[in-house]
Amino acid sequence: MFLLQVTNAAVSAAPDSVNAAVNAANQADGGLSLIDLILKGGWIMLPLFILLFVSVYIILERYLTIRKAGGQPESFMNGIRALMVKSDVQGAKLLCAQNPSPLARMVEKGLRRLGLPLTEIEASVENVGKIEIARLEKNINILGIIAGIAPMLGFVGTIIGVIKIFYAINATGDFGIAQIAGGLYTKMVTSAAGLIVGIIAHAGYHWLSILVERMVFRMENSAIEFMDILQDN
Prior knowledge:
By secondary structure, this protein is mostly helical. It has 9 helices and no strands. It has helices at residues 2-30, 34-39, 45-70, 73-85, 89-97, 102-112, 118-136, 140-172, 177-232. The longest helix is centred in the C-terminal third of the chain and has 56 residues, at 177-232. The chain is rod-shaped. Pfam families: MotA_ExbB. This is Biopolymer transporter ExbB. Its main location: membrane. It is a multi-pass membrane protein.
């Protein structure tokens, strides 16, 4: 009779324990949102977000600038060649003015130096090309700096998290989940955020550098073609 009562009590208590476990699991799954997780990282997340914003802005701004600067050098140089064959220097200058690109500014500089020795014209074109390349590379080096700083800031967050853990253990005299959870959140969240920002900046730096190198190659080819046009005429 006693065993029967114990069994009935256990069976009646089982649903309650199962429901409690399910509720705890549901709270664990949905209780921590992305915002809450980010806030667990502490104040170190603020400079990381600033670095992320700067990185994304530079990547988008430089990409649009380089893409706009690319234009269509083949059609532009064909137009310059056709005008120079006709000895229409003013028409060639007008075409350069209508094409706001680094290549057009290089050619326009060369056209303004007509009458001088070809070596001086070539030197003028190369100088303008260097200036235009520097404009294309503007702020790209900042991405390289961010790629190095962001993981270091994440490491600072890791150190802060470890300090929190030891402080909590020392304050309570106990070593448990309650003492290490806060520090572990700070440690892991800041480390992950620093690496993510660093990866974005690193990838953006090399991607934009490749785009600039391609643009430089096209500008050099067009400059050589322009000098050939001057020699032929």
